[in-house]
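ESCALATION

Customer reports they have been waiting on this structure for their group meeting. Please prioritize. Original submission:
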Amino acid sequence: MMKQVMRTFATCLVGLTMATGCGVHNNVTGATYSAASDDVLGAMAKAGKAVKAQQGAMQLYVMPDNGPKPILDQINSAKKSLKFELYMMTYTEVSKQVADALIAKAKSGCDVQVILEAQPYIPVDPANPKPFNVNGPAMQALIAGGVRVARSSPRFVYTHEKSMVIDHHTAVIMTMNMTNSAFTKNREYVVVDKSPSDVKEVEAIFDADWDQKAYSPKDPDLVVSPNNSRAQILKLIDSAKEELLVQCEFINDPEVVQHLAAAQNTRKVKVSMMLSFQKRQADGYDPNADATKIFGAANLTNFTFTKTVTMHAKGIVADGKAAYIGSENFTANSLDKNREMGIILTDAASVSKLVSVMNQDWKDNPIAAPAGK
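Update from on-call: job pushed to the front of the queue and completed.
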């Protein structure tokens, strides 16, 4: 075990300091849905998407509303094995509880494996320009606590996935990192998935990434970068007949914008998009500045930048019938070069809950809100 630890993180534990946050380099009201909305599932099936009965196999949690309990409960339920692939984990306050729970499980005899991104991207802050590795303290604590830790695979620009597999029978697919802001400030979604085929696939991807080997995903429910996420997300967008609700931290991929524009301008689908307001007061840096220009060029005007919550979630709902939730931002890097994980949801209760949250977020952040954008 120690040999594996030293091999996997020999290059990662240099110049490590602490930070929080996430980086990349990368009127919605109660809508009515007609029988035509069933075409979402039909279109997906015709395109090769095997729509499975997810009822009873999925449970959706919402951050910051639900707090750390759902994540801690899943970790604490592990008896023999726990596999966690993650972009970012800090080691203060709430996020420290997660790391400490993983350590406690390892010390109890559970085989705990964690893949962490070796060097998360953090935008340069003029007020604090010194480079740092946000994952450093958590990496060190996990290794010291007996958790088997591996560096992210160099096959990908970033391992931006956020997923967990417990005892080979439960997968947790998330939009959130393990940071304080994810639990206390961000809009995030967590899907607890007990579908056997999904769990098997998420675990197979983890095992391949642990061994730094290639893997071709096969499960039609999963949205996996760099393998199929672009096709899966475009397929979902193209399936919509009446309405698309979109929440994402970053949207600037030309092809995604093109398909959203086609939905609105050609098929007359109501497209409503919510992004995160992140304009930095100190120097005016705005990671979503290009989104405003791209949307304008595509005649997409029904969008807002949320301020009541930080929009770190990544989700799409098509006609209130099918949804995407996952780690993928709608950027070329995220779709084509990173390791990312998401899921296509058709579970009625989960999709309905997602629509309710998105509608409320829009109500709380109307289109007039982004003054200064």
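Sent to customer with the following note: The chain has two domains: 2-21+58-210, 35-55+221-364.
Escalation resolved.
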